[in-house]
Write a structure and sequence with these properties.
The complex is a heterodimer of chains A (294) and B (137).
Chain A: H1 4-41, H2 43-60, H3 68-71, E1 78-84, H4 94-111, E2 115-121, H5 123-133, E3 137-141, H6 151-166, E4 172-182, E5 185-194, H7 206-212, E6 214-216, H8 219-293
Parallel strand pairs in A: 1-2, 1-4, 2-3
Antiparallel strand pairs in A: 4-5
Helix pairs in contact in A: 1-8, 2-7, 2-8, 4-5, 6-8
Chain B: E1 5-10, E2 15-21, E3 23-28, E4 31-35, E5 42-55, E6 58-72, E7 76-81, E8 84-86, H1 92-108, H2 112-136
Parallel strand pairs in B: 1-7
Antiparallel strand pairs in B: 1-2, 3-4, 3-5, 5-6, 6-7, 6-8
Classes of the chains: A alpha/beta (294), B alpha+beta (137).
């Protein structure tokens, strides 16, 4: 049975924990709003780029001159996996689910005899996967998106990936990230970046699209510029989604923590009051029985 | 001129401009082109330079872009820009610093990759300088 003083101290400490978690929840909520709006703001660019790529790809379809970023190397022996996690913890299952999905994916690929390389973004994923797959790391990034994700950061990563690809470093590139669905639900997504899965322009008008556009300079030249750009955009998008998901996950986690702390304070307060009462009663009994004995 | 062309300027971070205009002049990689309504559809890459928006026969807005892509259809001009600043908001000192940094980076570049990057930055900075010059006239 803890003493009254112990109980009082516990209540004080749980109360201060609750203050911290509720502040963190508030901060996450406002960051979430910002992350969400920047994710939405980035959508038009990605959509338009997709449209142009669709037109270009369908006009080049079946030709041998298509860049390798689009068609792949024709093999799938070496896989590069880009793992997007957060730098900070205290966000529920956010990083855990990414790590779990990555582990499953990597072990699956290794069982098929493929070579796997890993590029991590975010400290948590890097630390949690290091023990098992540390030897597969080719590059790690951290501190991304501390002040909101910028395109320059995504571009950096994309440059690294493109250079590796041009040097024949890998055949297939996949990014693993949390797609933002709502503040309380994030979906772990594996998206293949190289070779690119081009959204099919509708079959019936693909012939039209081909005839429709003029290209300046040539399809190949534009595509050669556009593809690395698109890679950067896709990575940018996954960083934004991941950032929004992180804030959402943290908000939910902190909301739960705040509620749990409240419950705990209630039950501790009840125990405190009970034992205080019991002590008073005991003292009274002692006084009375002492008086009676006289 | 009643017919207008829908002009969209998009950067990776957000949609910057979306408005109907009379004409836009875009610095295409093979030369500047003006896009009026019912322009033949085309896709082109864009070099660093200035986009001019025309309203009622005169330039209403000049925007510097650091390269990108443009898609032109009969009713719409979409420019995907890597970086976009209004010429009126360009800061001469900032541009000069940028030019100097780019030149230094080029001198210090020791690998092919950094050299290409530095060269690209220099081209952008020079175009920015030129854009500033054109704004003064």
């Amino acid at each position: 049975m803890p003493s009254l003083k112990d109980l009082r101290l516990r209540i004080v400490s749980v109360k201060s924990t609750r203050k911290i978690t509720s502040a963190m929840k508030m901060v996450a909520a406002s960051k979430l709003r910002r992350a969400q709006s920047s994710a939405e703001a980035a959508r038009p660019y990605a959509e338009r780029m997709e449209r142009m790529l669709g037109a270009l790809a369908s006009s080049l379809a079946g030709q041998s001159g298509a860049p390798r970023l689009l068609t792949g190397t024709g093999k799938d022996d070496v896989h590069l996996i880009v793992v997007v996690t957060s730098d900070r913890g205290l966000c529920g299952g956010f990083n855990g689910s990414i790590v779990r999905a990555t582990r499953a994916h990597v072990t699956g690929l290794q069982a098929e005899g493929k070579t796997v390389k890993i590029l991590t973004v975010g400290r948590k994923g890097r630390d949690q996967l290091r023990r098992e797959f540390g030897s597969l790391y080719v590059e790690t990034y951290e501190g991304i998106g501390r002040k909101g994700v910028t395109f320059a950061e995504a571009n950096n990563i994309a440059d690294k990936v493109t250079t590796m690809f041009d040097a024949g470093g890998f055949d297939v590139c996949t990014v693993v990230y949390n797609r933002f669905q709502s503040a309380i639900s994030q979906v772990v997504t594996l998206q293949q970046l190289v070779p690119l899965a081009v959204p099919e322009t509708k079959a019936d008008d693909s012939g039209e699209v081909k005839a429709l556009y003029e290209y300046e300079p040539t399809e190949e030249a534009i595509l050669a510029d556009l593809l690395p750009r698109n890679l950067a955009v896709q990575i940018f998008r996954s960083l934004l989604e991941s950032n929004a998901s992180e804030q959402g996950a943290r908000m939910t986690a902190m909301d739960n923590a705040t509620r749990n702390a409240g419950d705990m304070i209630n039950s501790l307060t009840i125990r405190y009051n009970r034992s205080r009462q019991a002590q008073i009663t005991k003292e009274l009994i002692e006084i009375i029985s002492g008086a009676e004995a006289l | 001129m009643s017919e207008k062309v829908e002009f969209e300027l998009v950067s990776p971070e957000r949609l910057l401009i979306s408005q109907p205009v009379d004409m836009v002049v875009v610095p295409g990689s093979e030369g500047d082109f003006g896009a009026l309504p019912r322009h033949a559809p085309m896709i082109t890459s864009v070099r660093p330079g200035v986009i001019a928006i025309y309203e009622d026969g005169s330039v209403s807005e000049r925007i510097f872009i650091a390269g990108g892509f443009a898609e032109v259809t009969e009713v719409r001009v979409t420019v995907l820009a890597e970086e976009a600043v209004k010429v009126s908001e360009l800061n001469p000192e900032g541009v000069a610093t940028r030019l100097r940094l780019a030149e230094e980076a080029l001198e210090e570049a020791d690998t092919d990759v950094t050299r290409v990057q530095a060269q690209r930055a220099l081209v952008v900075a020079r175009a920015m300088q030129a854009a500033l010059g054109s704004a003064v006239h």
